[in-house]
Every structure is written in structure tokens, then in C-alpha cells.
Amino acid sequence: MTLTKTDAHRIASTLKPESRAFLAGRFTDASDGGTFATTNPATGTVLAQVAHCTATDVDRAVAQARRSFDSGTWSRAAPEHRKAILLKLADLVREHREELAVLESLDSGKTISDCLHEIGNEVPTFFQWYAELADKSFGKVAPTGEDNLALIVREPAGVVGLVLPWNFPLLMAAWKLAPALAAGCSCIVKPAEQTPLSALRLAELAREAGVPDGVLSVLPGLGETTGQAIGRHPDIDIVSFTGSTEVGGYFLRYAGESNLKVIGLEMGGKSPFIVLDDAELTDDLIEQAAMSAFWNGGQNCSANMRQLVDARLAEDYADRVIARARAFVVGDPLDPATGIGAMVTAEHQDRVMSYIDTGAREGARLLSGGNRFGPGCFIEPTVFGGLTPDMTIAREEIFGPVLGILPVTGMDEALRIARDSDYGLHASVFTRDIDRAIHMARRLPCGTVSVNGFSEGDVKTPFGGYKRSGSLARDNGAEAMDQYLQTKTIWFCTANPGIA
């Protein structure tokens, strides 16, 4: 699935993105008329002035969501009904994939190739998969004596707030919205302020698919206003958040200071890419190493920037990774030849550059890249060598196109350094020994461990983190729908009819 550069720019020139909030089945300005600008990070051009929703708008959306939930038009509908509508939504996303991909690329700086793949394949797959799961979530009958009957049933949890990150705007919307809607919840989506446009277009498609008015609201706004109002609202039952560990902590505090709502968190990472001494440095391994760090410009929670490579392989490994890094085309995100697009904002570009400067200052060897260029928010893919475990760039999440090579001696040292982290989202392990692979995978405190390849799994497998990378809640898999369902016991005290 490809678009030519000419076609992508042609579509871009025709777009008139919706920038108002979506509430009660229609688009509306923020209650106080406030707006904020969303900007194309590749050019600095303002794309739209977007409604900046306030606590008043959150109140309105929650009231609508509660009414829709209590009415049962969605929450108590036959699961086959929800299934049909979500399948229609999946089809509509496929039908509009080129428009959505160009819109997202403009708003985020992501490459058009990545946007087309995610929106043309993954996003509709999530809506389809959870649609199919909607009528396959079974309760239980507990074993009792004949005088009782015990039913264990699953019910939609209520009104949920879904707070999205900016690095995968529409994909993360699908990760959260598909299972929440399939479960029967009413949903309030807050897209990241940097990338609100594709979520607003998705709301329009959801209405066309048949999602009832009030079941879905999309409220753009800033984290400290709209996000905080969602986190503190006393009539929201669950918040699912993907983003920084710092902001995840805010949501836990908001819950404690309001109604003790359930908080599902998927947060930062500092994921190791471990190459043991028996690994073969194939072209595929080098490609996996580069993509694990540079995919999406490194703006990925599970990016494997921290690469722990056996010292006997490190020199050859570094030479080949540098060559691959220099082969990336960095530039116009709407050009399918581009491999790395823009950083999402100028502020984020500055943040990544500060880490590059810190790495050089603390003694890491800058082997390649390390420069910004413009006029957009671009950074060269950057490779450091000679990392030590205590360096800032070996410990903190950078969220940019920066790869660091840290030589290790033996499996035990690799495991010790890999475990020495505040985070536990993801790890990759490369070895030809299945026993070593299992040993490493079982001992790495991470939510996902991929072996002999960089992968986060797929829609069928749960994704989330240990430590400061997340809570027990998970996105993806059947486990994702669990966080949007309550468990209820119904206990019947049956009359004894006196029949022998």
C-alpha cells in the first residue's frame, strides 16, 4: 500500500480538517471559544486552530456519556449489535485510509509509509478483532450445592476516559477505543494536543458507522486543563493513559484526590537490545537493530536505543549499524522514500538534542549523526558508542533517533545491566541458543520480550510494562477488554421443591 509523493501532496492540498470538539454526536466549539494551534512539524505551518476544551466541556461530555450508558442503547445492546457497528467502522477506516494517513503525517511528522501501514492495516484490524470478541466474552457458573446457583457475569465498567499519546495518534486511539466500545462502555477520548486531527476525523467515521450519540466524545485540549479535568472527574469510572511516566503519576494522584477511579497506565521505557556472543551479525539483525531504535524517529516507548552488545562483536556491529543509520532518508514525511520524518514539535527537537549534547559531554563517543536541520524539526539518526551503564543517555528515555552501543562481557553482565533500569516495557534478545533465550526472557522484568527480532507482538498479545513503565492493566489481547469490564456475582438461593 503506497502513495506517490505527488499524490500525497495532492491529498494534503485538499484536506480541510475538522478542528472542533466532538460531543453528543456533533462537532462544537469549546464552551469558552478557546483554541490552540496544531502545527505541521516538517514545515512549521499551522494546520488548524483546534478547540481547547475546558473542565466545563468535560462535564458536558461526561453527562452525555453517563446518560448514554444508563440508557443502555450501547451498554446493554446485544453484543452482535456492537459487533456490526465496529466492523462497519473498520471498513470505513480502510475506505478512508489515504486521507487519514496524509492527515496524520501532516499533524505528527510521521512518514507517510508508516501512517499508511498503521492506518490501512493495524487500525482497522483492531476494530475488527474487538468487534469479533464482543460476542465471545463469556461468564461462568460457579460450582455450588443444589440449593444455590452462582453466576459470574462481566458487565461494562461505565464511563471511561482514554488519554492518547502523540507518537501513534490513530493507532493508540484504536488500541484503547476498540476494546472499550466492544465492552459496552461510553468513551471520552482526549487526543494529544500535538496531534488531535486524526482522532476528530475518526469520531466522524464512528458516527457514520452507527455509534450512538453520547457514546463517544473527542475533546482536544492541553494536558493541564482537559487531561486533568478528565483525571479528576468524579463520574468517570476508568482512565486509560499512554504517555510519560511523569504524567502517569499525575493521573494516579488525580484518582486519589477524586473518586479513586481505576487508572490503566502504559508509560515510558528504556528498552534493551541484547546481542549475546553467539549471535550471528546477519543483515537482518543489523536491520532489526536500526529499526528498533530509529523506527518512527525513535519516538516510541519500546524503542531499543540501549543496545547491549557482546564486546567481541561490538566493533563490527557498530560499523554496520552506522552504515545502516546513514542510509536513512530524513526529510519530507509525505515522500514514500523518507525513512525518518520530523520530531513532533520544536520543543521536543530541543529535548532530544539536549540528550545528544549530554551524551557527548559525559564521554560517550559520537560515531554518527548528532545534528539538527530544518526548516522543520529534523534530527539526523545518531549513533553513540562506548556507553557505560551510569550515563544519562543509557538510563533516561530520549524519545528520538538516538542509538547507543554499550559493550558487555558475557550473558550474566548483559542481564545485570539490562535489569538495572527504572523501566520494564520491552526487551529484545539475540542468541542462537534456545536455553539462553528462555533464561534471558524469563529473567528480564519487562512486559514484552522478543527473541531474535524486534517486535511488540500484535493485536492478540497484551502489551504493557513493569516497574515505572506501567500498571497491571494491558492494551491489546483479550486482556485489554478486561480493564473495561466489571465482574459481578449473582447468587441464587434456590427453593427446595422437595423432589427426591
CATH topology of the largest domain: Aldehyde Dehydrogenase, Chain A, domain 1
Average of the residue pLDDT scores: 97
Q: What amount of the residues lies in strands? A: 15-25%
The residue fraction in helices comes out at: 40-55%
Number of helices: 16
Shape: globular
**Strand runs, count:** 23
CATH homology group of the largest domain: Aldehyde Dehydrogenase, Chain A, domain 1
Provide the low-confidence segments as ranges: none
CATH architecture of the largest domain, by name, is 3-Layer(aba) Sandwich
Terminal Cα span:
69 Å
What structural class should be given to the helix and strand makeup? alpha/beta
Reading off the top of the CATH hierarchy, the class of the largest domain is best stated as Alpha Beta
Mind telling me the C-alpha Rg? 24 Å
The biggest sheet, with number of strands, parallel, antiparallel or mixed sense and barrel status, is: 7 strands, mixed
The strand line-up of the biggest sheet is: 14-17-18-13-12-20-21
Counted up, domains total 2
Any descriptors?
alpha/beta, 500 residues, 23 strands, single chain, Aldehyde Dehydrogenase, Chain A, domain 2, 5-stranded parallel β-sheet, 2 domains, 20% strand, Aldehyde Dehydrogenase, Chain A, domain 1
